[in-house]
């Protein structure tokens, strides 16, 4: 789903796109995604999962969509974010690193309850 659709899908389930505020939360999600293992990594970027982080409102100001908190902890892949105004939604890659990407990309996603 697109990031926007994923956000809506989480809402329907009474939850929101996951917010990762510590390395432990990041590692936990990474571990879970590896356990589910529905994607075979063929390159760095092909197994991304949407998380709640985005800079759609103001370029470069990344924040979590549900809490509206600005990003404090972050785990960007080296060289990311690189999308400027073209890429405003964030995915977690197969190694747990983050990448900004086109919000219209179809990615799996992770919801969490409040
Ligand atoms: Ca951006
Ligand atoms: Ca990027």
UniProtKB/TrEMBL annotation:
Record's keyword annotation contains Disulfide bond? yes
Q: Which protein, by its recorded name, is this? A: C-type lectin domain-containing protein
Tell me which residues make up the C-type lectin domain: 1-112
Q: Which domain of life is it from?
A: Eukaryota
Q: Which PROSITE patterns match?
A: C_TYPE_LECTIN_1, C_TYPE_LECTIN_2
Question: Which InterPro entries does the annotation name?
Answer: C-type_lectin-like, C-type_lectin-like/link_sf, C-type_lectin/snaclec_domain, C-type_lectin_CS, CTDL_fold
SUPFAM superfamilies, from UniProt?
C-type lectin-like (SSF56436)
The cross-references to Pfam families, in alphabetical order and at most eight, read:
Lectin_C
Q: Which SMART domains match?
A: CLECT (SM00034)
> Lineage of the native species?
Eukaryota, Metazoa, Spiralia, Lophotrochozoa, Mollusca
Q: Which UniProt keywords apply?
A: Disulfide bond
UniProt keyword annotation of Zinc present? no
């Amino acid at each position: 789903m697109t990031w926007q659709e994923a956000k809506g899908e989480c809402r329907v389930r009474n939850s929101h796109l996951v917010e990762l505020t510590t390395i432990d939360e990041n590692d936990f999600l990474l571990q879970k995604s590896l356990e589910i293992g529905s994607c075979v990594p063929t390159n760095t970027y092909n197994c991304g999962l949407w998380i709640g982080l985005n800079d759609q409102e103001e370029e470069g100001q990344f924040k979590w969509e549900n809490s509206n908190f600005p990003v404090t902890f972050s785990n960007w892949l080296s060289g990311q974010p690189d999308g400027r105004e073209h890429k405003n939604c964030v995915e977690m890659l197969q190694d747990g690193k983050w990448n900004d990407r086109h919000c219209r990309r179809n990615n799996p996603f992770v919801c969490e309850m409040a």
